[in-house]
């Protein structure tokens, strides 16, 4: 099937996932800008603590929403998701992959060169496609591969523009750092594909309540082990607190909007959309940090957006898993009993 033919039956609302994907990308930008400002201006580096606060907020808000929804429906199963031992391990696995991917990504940039870390991290996108094919039964069309290739080309242009202007980005290379980065990219792919699988079987409140529960426990334990001394040395002024709040609000918003986008599209599309966060981070740097615009950045941004648009205009990937396809096509509220009860 040619690319032209695959684009002849686009989704009627193709613009909605595209815009929602860019909102998620802006949320990611908010987290990176807040973390950079914490380190640059206040020498604060507490990623475990920041993630703990985010997961705790998700758990609190969405557990209350779940309780309210079940109360209105005259049911009493709002605590059951957390007590179902057979299903809890699925969410534990998702939260573990998600938490460790975030932390390893930070560690990777400290353990190897920026160029190497960025290139190796691009493994996330093809890894998501591979996992989706193996475990979700996806069968991608030519248009999907064309969009991904165009998106990756834009990503490599972003990397090239960054590294050509900064010789330090190619120093401090380490194979151990590359391995850490590869592990992080793989864990990101696992968490994204797992999230797509879960959100089609649970309501948003149920998914985020469980993810927040396990995520807050995992990141909280690691924060206590690795960052308790850092807590005592931080000057907890209002600026530090405000930046942490920006991080938590941005990441919480991304997690809260994510299930809606997964139901409109898939993990591959979301991963492609988030690449533009590099461009938005640069715009933030231009405004707040006197950064300079590399001349190829606008072209790279257009390529990424073009790749995402082509992917989204192509008919959705087919799947040979009839059970999964039927769940995707139905209201998730109807299918909540499939996994959540």
From TrEMBL:
<feature type="transmembrane region" description="Helical">
    <location>
        <begin position="269"/>
        <end position="289"/>
    </location>
</feature>
<feature type="transmembrane region" description="Helical">
    <location>
        <begin position="114"/>
        <end position="136"/>
    </location>
</feature>
<dbReference type="InterPro" id="IPR052221">
    <property type="entry name" value="SLC35F_Transporter"/>
</dbReference>
<feature type="transmembrane region" description="Helical">
    <location>
        <begin position="173"/>
        <end position="191"/>
    </location>
</feature>
<keyword id="KW-0813">Transport</keyword>
<comment type="similarity">
    <text>Belongs to the SLC35F solute transporter family.</text>
</comment>
<keyword id="KW-0472">Membrane</keyword>
<dbReference type="InterPro" id="IPR009262">
    <property type="entry name" value="SLC35_F1/F2/F6"/>
</dbReference>
<keyword id="KW-1133">Transmembrane helix</keyword>
<feature type="transmembrane region" description="Helical">
    <location>
        <begin position="211"/>
        <end position="228"/>
    </location>
</feature>
<protein>
    <submittedName>
        <fullName>Solute carrier family 35 member SLC35F1/F2/F6</fullName>
    </submittedName>
</protein>
<feature type="transmembrane region" description="Helical">
    <location>
        <begin position="52"/>
        <end position="68"/>
    </location>
</feature>
<dbReference type="GO" id="GO:0022857">
    <property type="term" value="F:transmembrane transporter activity"/>
</dbReference>
<dbReference type="Pfam" id="PF06027">
    <property type="entry name" value="SLC35F"/>
</dbReference>
<feature type="transmembrane region" description="Helical">
    <location>
        <begin position="296"/>
        <end position="314"/>
    </location>
</feature>
<feature type="transmembrane region" description="Helical">
    <location>
        <begin position="240"/>
        <end position="257"/>
    </location>
</feature>
<keyword id="KW-0812">Transmembrane</keyword>
<dbReference type="GO" id="GO:0016020">
    <property type="term" value="C:membrane"/>
</dbReference>
<feature type="transmembrane region" description="Helical">
    <location>
        <begin position="142"/>
        <end position="161"/>
    </location>
</feature>
<feature type="transmembrane region" description="Helical">
    <location>
        <begin position="20"/>
        <end position="40"/>
    </location>
</feature>
């Amino acid at each position: 099937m040619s690319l032209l033919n695959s684009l002849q039956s686009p989704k009627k609302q193709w613009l909605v996932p595209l815009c929602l994907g860019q909102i998620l990308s802006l949320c990611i930008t908010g987290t990176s800008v807040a973390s950079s400002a914490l380190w640059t201006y206040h020498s604060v580096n507490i990623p475990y603590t920041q993630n703990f606060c985010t997961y705790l907020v998700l758990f609190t808000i969405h557990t209350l929403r779940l309780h309210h929804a079940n109360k209105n429906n005259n049911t009493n199963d709002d605590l059951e998701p957390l007590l179902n031992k057979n299903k809890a391990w699925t969410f534990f696995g998702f939260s573990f992959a998600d938490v460790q991917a975030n932390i390893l990504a930070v560690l990777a940039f400290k353990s190897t060169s920026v160029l190497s870390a960025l290139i190796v991290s691009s493994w996330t996108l093809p890894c998501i496609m591979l996992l989706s094919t193996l475990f979700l039964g996806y069968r991608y069309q030519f248009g999907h591969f064309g969009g991904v290739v165009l998106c990756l080309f834009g990503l490599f242009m972003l990397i090239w523009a960054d590294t050509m202007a900064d010789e330090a980005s190619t120093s401090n290379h380490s194979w151990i750092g590359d391995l850490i980065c590869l592990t992080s990219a793989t864990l990101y792919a696992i968490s994204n594909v797992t999230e797509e699988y879960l959100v089609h079987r649970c309501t948003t409140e149920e998914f985020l309540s469980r993810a927040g529960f396990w995520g807050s426990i995992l990141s909280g334990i690691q924060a206590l082990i690795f960052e308790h001394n850092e807590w005592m040395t931080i000057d907890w002024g209002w600026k530090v607190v405000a930046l942490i709040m920006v991080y938590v609000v941005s990441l919480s918003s991304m997690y809260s909007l994510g299930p809606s986008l997964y139901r409109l599209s898939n993990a591959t599309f979301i991963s492609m959309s988030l690449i533009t966060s590099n461009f938005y981070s640069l715009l933030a740097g231009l405004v707040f940090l006197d950064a300079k615009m590399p001349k190829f950045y606008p072209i790279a941004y257009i390529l990424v957006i073009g790749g995402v648009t082509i992917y989204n205009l192509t008919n959705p990937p087919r799947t040979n898993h009839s059970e999964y396809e039927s769940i995707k096509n139905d209201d998730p509220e109807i299918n909540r009993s499939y996994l959540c009860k």
